[in-house]
């Protein structure tokens, strides 16, 4: 298998400092192959219209600074897409006692265009979301010949994968940390994060995201999960050499040694 390692000085996105911080924090953190066996289906923008972009996205200082600069320097490009960005694309936010910086939001008619829009989600969206559900930051990168996720905050293109203190996670209804009274979860309620009875293992559906994250971290995440699965199978199915072999004179009558 080809190595997924990337030079530490070779930035893959517009967020060089955030990349370095990500690599330092998650260089050795665990990824659980079992969680990524849950069946998922790729969402279709015609159906979800960017449901996961509701309420914007929390960002670190490096990402906030880059997005501020890109919004100002590429204002004409965004206007040509039909985006009327506000003067401030990054705002302060408070959520359950925690403060952070996040992308600004605007009203968006999710309930009229997404029949199964979660009832506890508000009808607001990141200011970079286009009316057809595409991301203006991703479209900008494509127009400039960059990787599609070059300008997208990490948490956006990773969704529904989450980077947490406990590892690289794929939350379900039982583990989603955003489920509590009055708010019935986030990752597990979006179209691409919901379990799908007719779906495929998340490790395959999210293979592109896992491969790119691996490049950022200098790891082969898909390979790591493969090895976990093989090791787990070996533990559950002992090999023939684990069974005791009876001495020759104790073999049942009628057997031969050939």
Highlighted features:
two-stranded antiparallel sheet; alpha+beta; disordered N terminus; 258 residues; disordered C terminus
Structure description:
The chain starts with 15 loop residues before the first helix and ends in a 22-residue tail after the last helix. It is built from 10 helices and 11 strands. With 258 residues, it is an alpha+beta fold. Helix content is 32%, strand content 13%. It has a 3-stranded antiparallel beta sheet with strand order 2-4-3. Strand 3 (90-95) and strand 4 (98-103) form a beta hairpin. It has one domain (16-233). Mean pLDDT is 89; it is low at 1-6 and 240-258. The protein is globular and about 60 Å long. The protein has helices at 16-26, 45-48, 61-73, 75-81, 110-113, 136-143, 154-158, 202-205, 207-217, 221-236, and strands spanning 39-40, 58-59, 90-95, 98-103, 105-107, 124-126, 162-164, 167-169, 179-180, 183-184, 200-201.
Short description:
By secondary structure, the chain is of the alpha+beta class.
Biggest β-sheet: strands ordered side by side in the sheet: 2-4-3
Q: What's the mean pLDDT score?
A: 89
Sheet of most strands = 3 strands, antiparallel
Helix percent band = 25-40%
Radius of gyration: 23 Å
Order of helices and strands: HEHEHHEEEHEHHEEEEEHHH
Write the layout of secondary structure elements.
Layout lengths: L15 H11 L12 E2 L4 H4 L9 E2 L1 H13 L1 H7 L8 E6 L2 E6 L1 E3 L2 H4 L10 E3 L9 H8 L10 H5 L3 E3 L2 E3 L9 E2 L2 E2 L15 E2 H4 L1 H11 L3 H16 L22
């Amino acid at each position: 298998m080809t190595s997924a390692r990337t030079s530490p000085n070779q930035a893959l996105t517009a967020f060089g400092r955030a990349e370095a911080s990500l690599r330092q924090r998650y260089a050795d953190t665990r990824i659980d192959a079992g969680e990524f066996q849950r069946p998922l289906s790729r969402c279709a923008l015609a159906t979800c219209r960017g449901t996961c972009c509701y309420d914007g996205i929390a960002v670190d200082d490096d990402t906030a600074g880059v997005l501020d600069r890109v919004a100002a320097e590429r204002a004409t490009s965004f206007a040509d897409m039909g985006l009327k960005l506000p003067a401030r694309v990054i705002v302060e936010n408070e959520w359950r006692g925690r403060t952070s910086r996040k992308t600004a939001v605007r009203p968006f008619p999710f309930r009229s265009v997404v029949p199964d829009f979660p009832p506890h989600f508000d009808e607001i969206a990141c200011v970079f979301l286009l009316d057809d559900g595409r991301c203006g930051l991703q479209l900008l990168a494509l127009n400039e010949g960059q990787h599609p996720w070059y300008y997208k905050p990490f948490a956006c293109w990773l969704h529904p994968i989450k980077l947490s203190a406990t590892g690289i996670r794929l939350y379900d209804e039982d583990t989603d940390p955003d489920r509590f009274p009055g708010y019935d979860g986030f990752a597990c309620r979006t179209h691409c994060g919901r379990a799908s009875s007719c779906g495929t293992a998340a490790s395959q559906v999210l293979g592109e995201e896992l491969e790119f994250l691996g490049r950022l971290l200098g790891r082969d995440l898909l390979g790591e999960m493969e090895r976990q699965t093989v090791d787990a199978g070996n533990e559950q199915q002992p090999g023939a050499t684990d069974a005791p072999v009876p001495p020759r004179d104790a073999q049942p009558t009628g057997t031969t040694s050939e």
